[in-house]
Write a structure and sequence with these properties.
The strands form 4 sheets. A 3-stranded mixed sheet has the order 4-1-5. The chain has helices spanning 2-5, 24-27, 51-63, 65-68, 83-96, 102-115, 119-125, 129-144, 166-172, 174-177, 180-184, 187-204, 207-210, 220-239, 247-260, 291-304, and strands at 15-19, 28-29, 36-37, 46-49, 75-79, 152-153, 164-165, 262-264, 270-272. The chain is built from 16 helices and 9 strands. The longest helix has 20 residues, at 220-239.
Length: 311
């Protein structure tokens, strides 16, 4: 209702209905080209798919009949189908539809925000501006950072040589972009902080950056965990009065934690340091790939990190 009122959307797809009481002689006129479906006020079309769109229009008409009662609704009609067939078609429509890939959705959303007035206002209302801002950060980070150049897979890119899809990297930035400090910075400064942070990690675990495809550090599990960790690491650096765009302060904060971090690989052997982040069965990070696992891993690293001192 809100988006229709503000003219942000039309009905993007046809409503699927069914004319249960079909009389071919009365309802079908095959003399035209194309043939016509003839309906009168006594005919009922049962909504098979599109209930929310129809309900939104119904409520708009109740608010302002003069404005909305003439709104044209595109529809596709089944003819003479049973209620059981309606159920089957509803199931097919809603269980087999394929969503647009997340990386493509973020890319398209950013393009819309750059060219269409009002898009960012709409995203602000739904607390989704981070998607556009995150996409821009990831694009800039991939261009400007030697550690990320060629390692991020954007829509249409071949997988070879890349270690993470752009949507995974964008999603990992959501907590950071929703914080008062990092979220208020310009994109340029946000990229500088991220580059310094990852350079600091490289100083501690250089082996993991030589061939990143062999390690999980720059893949989804590593990025999600380390960007969540950055929420408090950044505050630690700021509290110490050191620069947030230099790698050394970040390295000093997380060095002990990353070097002491250990876990069992799939063979039961204890691995630590860079070996912990080896991809596949040889490393330990793969056992934390679920959402719950990433939370546990983040907590483990956080507990190994020095506490923040205040004066």
């Amino acid at each position: 209702m809100n988006d229709l009122k503000k003219r942000r959307v039309d009905l993007p797809t046809s409503v699927l209905v069914n004319l249960r009481e079909l009389d071919p002689l009365e309802h079908l006129d095959e003399r035209g080209d194309p043939p016509l479906l003839r309906l009168d006020g006594g005919d009922q079309l049962y909504i098979v798919d599109g209930q929310h769109r129809v309900e939104a229009l119904k409520r708009l008409i109740e608010e302002d009949e003069e404005k909305w009662s003439q709104y044209e609704v595109p529809f596709v009609s089944m003819l003479g189908a049973s209620e059981r067939e309606e159920i089957r078609q509803f199931y097919v429509v809603n269980s087999t539809a394929k969503s647009v890939r997340t990386d493509l959705a973020y890319d398209l959303l950013k393009q819309r925000a750059e060219s269409e007035p009002g898009v960012m206002d709409s995203l602000t209302e739904t607390n989704e501006t981070w998607k556009v801002r995150g996409q821009q950060i990831v694009e800039d980070l991939e261009k400007m950072s030697p550690l990320w150049r060629g390692r991020v897979r954007f829509p249409g890119d071949a997988a070879a040589g890349t270690v993470i899809g752009s949507s995974g990297l964008v999603g990992s930035l959501q907590p950071l972009l929703n914080t008062p400090y990092f979220g208020a910075l310009t994109t340029v400064n946000q990229v500088k902080i991220l580059e310094a942070y990852w350079q600091g990690i490289q100083k501690i675990l250089p082996e993991a950056f030589g061939d990143p495809t062999e390690y999980a550090l720059q893949k989804s599990v590593g990025v999600q965990v380390l960007h969540t960790l950055l929420l408090t690491v950044l505050e630690h650096v700021r509290a110490s009065g050191r620069s947030v765009i230099e790698p050394e302060p970040y390295a000093d904060v997380v060095e002990e934690a990353l070097l002491k971090l250990e876990g069992d690989n799939r063979s039961g052997a204890v691995v630590r340091g860079s070996d912990f982040w080896l991809a596949g069965a040889e490393g330990g990070a793969g056992t934390y790939s679920s959402n719950a696992g990433r939370r546990v891993l983040t907590a483990k690293i956080r507990n190994l990190r020095p506490e923040i001192d205040v004066e």
